[in-house]
Automatic annotation (TrEMBL):
Subcellular location: Cell membrane
Keyword Transferase recorded: no
Topology term for the membrane: Multi-pass membrane protein
Record field: transmembrane: 12-30, 36-55, 67-89, 146-170, 201-226, 232-255, 267-289, 301-324
Protein's name in the database: AI-2E family transporter
Annotated family: Belongs to the autoinducer-2 exporter (AI-2E) (TC 2.A.86) family.
GO cellular component: plasma membrane
Pfam name, any one: AI-2E_transport
Species of provenance: Algoriphagus lacus
Record keywords: Cell membrane, Membrane, Transmembrane, Transmembrane helix, Transport
Length: 364
């Protein structure tokens, strides 16, 4: 190949890498509406591949097995969305109590700020129901635009099951294509890498799912014992948000804390929720995730955190969810070529560095 005979200076190699990164980021931003459903469909396909293979083992045609997997995925998503929407709607019944609580807190804050700083922001007046209604009426246009933009972005969700179906249907075809791309490598080795990659992503997704179920049970139990309304909803939402490292748990506990502060008559409840949630997160971080998820993705903490920032900046919440398994895929791909192995080492953990270094360096 031509690339094997080119001996570019180091500065040109660095420049080419920078240009490639800039072009890639631009491509990811411009193609967000298509690429996010494509990646999501791919990960759902990996998740349901074992089910499809099981059905095909009993002579179920691949088209039918892919369609059944698709229906099951849609049913699970629709059920989850219905559960969330139903609970959000039920929150409206607590609006009167919330308004009264806001007025009470606003009066206390107004009194304290006026006594200590001579400032009165009239928070109690702003917390009244009529004020909130007038505010919503005045800003209805911007709220409507936000809702329309949100619905518009959600329209891309329709593509996810479509992509998932085709990934399941043509998975062998895609495997053969990858083998042809790396035709200078041993086909058996490439197929082994692809199989290993599927297992890594599948184990990661299943492991995260198990952790989410355990967290949901712990959260629901804790909130129920404290007497927090909608304990099941808050427990499940907190477990789902935990899929986003670092920032997900923060928003997962913020919802029940805010709700308990506004609807319950004591600060004990939000403080207790915070303490219990922190205990649960400690158990999750030090026991559940290491034991269940383990080192499936083998990404170092710095790259993971940096990836979350970049993924969030480019694709929002979807990017923060997709970035970890995507980087795990890239690490496996980088390991297929000697020229890209340094990038695989960069993404991986420090304890695995020796497998990338020459033998004379590992023996020092």
């Amino acid at each position: 190949m031509l690339s094997k005979h080119l001996n570019l200076p180091s500065y040109l190699k660095a420049l080419s890498v920078m240009v490639f990164i800039i072009v890639l980021v631009f491509f990811l931003i411009v193609g967000k509406s298509l690429l996010v459903p494509l990646f999501m469909g791919g990960f759902f396909a990996i998740l349901f591949t074992p089910l499809g293979m099981l059905m095909e083992k009993y002579r179920v045609p691949r088209t039918l097995s892919s369609f059944i997997s698709l229906l099951l995925m849609v049913a699970l998503v629709v059920g989850l969305v219905s559960f969330i929407v139903g609970n959000v709607v039920s929150f409206t019944k607590d609006f009167t109590n919330v308004s009264e609580r806001l007025v009470s807190v606003g009066q206390q804050v107004d009194t304290w700020t006026e006594e200590n700083f001579g400032i009165n922001e009239k928070l109690a007046e702003k917390a009244e129901s009529q004020y909130l209604i007038n505010y919503l009426d005045e800003h209805s246009n911007s709220i409507s635009n936000f809702a329309l933009n949100t619905i518009g972005s959600l329209s891309g969700l329709v593509l996810i099951p479509v992509f998932m179906f085709f990934f399941l249907l043509y998975r062998d075809h895609l495997t053969r294509m990858i083998v042809m791309i790396y035709r200078d490598k041993d086909p058996t080795l490439v197929k082994m890498r692809i199989t290993n990659l599927r297992k890594v992503i599948l184990n990661y997704i299943v492991g995260v799912g198990k952790v989410m179920v355990i967290l949901a049970i712990l959260n629901i139990t804790a909130y129920s014992l404290l007497g927090v309304k909608h304990a099941i909803f808050f427990g499940i939402i907190g477990a789902i948000l935990n899929i986003i490292p670092y920032v997900g748990p923060f928003f997962g506990v913020l919802l029940p804390i805010t709700y308990s502060f506004l609807t319950m008559d004591s600060l004990f409840y939000p403080v207790a929720i915070l303490v219990i949630y922190q205990i649960i997160q400690t158990v999750e971080g030090n026991f559940l995730t290491p034991k269940i998820v383990g080192g499936n993705v083998n990404l170092n903490a710095f790259i993971t955190f940096l990836g979350l920032l970049v993924g969030g900046a480019i694709w929002g919440v979807a990017g923060m969810i997709l970035v970890i398994p995507t980087m795990a895929i890239l690490r496996e791909i980088f390991e297929l070529n000697e020229d890209t192995r340094p990038f695989a080492m960069l993404l991986g953990e420090e304890k695995n560095d020796k497998q990338y270094l020459p033998e004379d360096e590992t023996t020092e």
